[in-house]
Design brief:
Pfam families: CM_2
Low-confidence stretches: none
GO molecular function: chorismate mutase activity
Number of helices: 3
Mean pLDDT: 94
Helix content: over 70%
GO biological process, one term: salicylic acid biosynthetic process
Structural class: mainly alpha
Radius of gyration: 19 Å
Order of helices and strands: HHH
Keywords: Isomerase
Shape: elongated
């Protein structure tokens, strides 16, 4: 089997480092988002406001679909942010 179609060890290592850096940044941003949502949650509880606003969530996701200029499909954007919203809710209510 020929290995000429496979990236070199240096290329593979550099690519993995880049992915790791992106993952670290994503993790930092996710934790920051969770902190902000927790603050919002406390405010809503104190103010007697509904904790979930489905119209806001749908609007936010659709705005992100429209703003996406990358290669992630509209379905991918929707799925990612829908899962993110579910995860954040689980974290808020489970903490």
């Amino acid at each position: 089997m020929s290995t000429e179609n496979y990236p070199s060890d240096e290329t593979l290592a550099a690519t993995r480092r880049e992915i790791n850096e992106i993952d670290q940044k994503l993790l930092e941003l996710l934790n920051r988002r969770l902190e902000i949502v927790r603050t919002l949650h406390v405010h809503k509880v104190r103010a007697g406001l509904p904790l979930r606003d489905m119209a806001r969530e749908e609007s936010m996701v659709e705005q992100l679909v429209e703003a996406n200029t990358g290669t992630l499909s509209p379905t991918g954007v929707r799925r990612f942010f829908t899962h993110l919203l579910d995860l954040i809710r689980e974290e808020i209510h489970g903490a």
